[in-house]
Structure of NADH:ubiquinone reductase (non-electrogenic):
Amino acid sequence: MTILSFFTRASRAFNGYPSSSKLLLLCTLSLSGGGVVAYSEAQVDASKTSVQVNEKDCKKKRVVVLGTGWAGISFLKDLDVSAYDVQVVSPRNYFAFTPLLPSVTCGTVEARSIVEPVRNIIKKRNGEIQFWEAECMKIDAANKKLLCRYTVENNLVGNDEFSLEYDYLVIAVGAQVNTFNTPGVLENCHFLKEVEDAQKIRRTVIDCFEKAVLPGLSEEERRTNLHFVIVGGGPTGVEFAAELHDFVQEDLVNLYPSVKDMVKITVIQSGDHILNMFDERISSFAEQKFQRDGIEVQTGSRVISVSDKEITMKLKAKGEICSVPHGLVVWSTGVETRPFVKDFMGQIGQANRRVLATDEWLRVKGCEDVYALGDCATINQRKVMEDIAAIFKAADKDNSGFLTVEEFKDVIDDILERYPQVEHYLKSKHLRDVTDLMKDSEGNDIDEVDIEGFKLALCQADSQVKNLPATAQVAAQQGAYLSKCFNRKSKWKDNPEGPRRFRGSGRHQFHPFQYKHLGQFAPLGGEQAAAELPGDWVSVGRSTQWLWYSVYASKQVSWRTRVLVVSDWTRRFIFGRDSSRI
């Protein structure tokens, strides 16, 4: 027998054996010079395996995720990627812990301590996730395609544009800063939405101090350079003002003693109070603390223009217009929809809306197989009065035209889940149960109610419908919820778990998204913070600041960032903040 025929028969004989057996063959044959032939056989098998894997992947539904913020990363971390062909598109190849951006502006925390590379996150998943560092320029809803572009400016060769097809699209791109078309804002203001924004603010703050101590400047010019203006009295603006005050008082006044009495921090708020989305006790505490710290708070003021030297505003109480010189302006007044999302909204009949609308399952209205999470979308909660007749008919099992308490109880759970505003209404009226609504005009219990009485009982519930805030907490919960829905798609297709369909038959496939508020913090500087906790609890002071440290450390996306953030806090306590302009 020739050597060639021997290897041919050996190849056929071992063709059906597992790879471990073939590896043993490779080791044995290499001792007699047959390693090349054995390697060739292994390569053929590998190619067969690759073809089989590719054929298997082709059968998977493709899920394209736009964005690597809170919503996108929460979705990816919990998604069963073995069931889908997952592709991620984002102009940033990292996830940023945005609640700590104000700390980055003053060097309390370093920028790299709050970011985690996306590829570090996706490599830990059992399955393959493809990531493309690019920006989505257009969504073609009709053909289920995306046009993307690599936006980093460099001299690298190759085409910057490419397209992607999708079966499911998850839009989690967040929102951009809303300037309200105020003249001069884009050209002369700093923003605080991205890590790059925080780094730019940090450099500018140092520039203001360095310029102020130069010889030859008048006192007025020094004061102008050291006047820091924050437009917007929300959590971001207030926290930045507090961080900046601590940076100045704890570090910079020791480095620039000649101008320590010329620094001024002003917060401009169009409303009557800062932190007006918090409990009024927190808002009052914050205003009092800022007054003690020397931070000027101008409420009832609307900015009408910003130049490179002055900021002009209108005082609502007096109707007067005044201009104030500034060295730095940080604009933190709200967000608006990104341009390509606006274009997408026009394609699906939402052109007249300000924000992309979804249903309670986070599905974009007017577009199948597209979901939207986080700041770029809002849930359009269905009104209970729109379905009041269908609810009554479904509950009235004997078709008597009247609804008994027992019949009402049979649909209570489905009503509360499908229309969460009903539960909010009960709490606002201090009612223990929905059946407490079944009372006559004098407040007495009744045994049954007709359709008009049923409408009267629930007509006020829709007044409790509220939009969810544009916060990291909401986005993270939505991402985790949607990933669970995707993981259960095949399981619950024939066995739906959601509430009853009052219009139609059967049940909804999934439970609708329900936001659970876990509380919110407002660091106020000087190692003091305020917190609004579940159950109408309010906490302020130093102990709350340490609670803030604990929560924010535990919420880091990885142990790497957790260690870096805690070490930055420790470094700041020991050595102070770094004032280098880097």
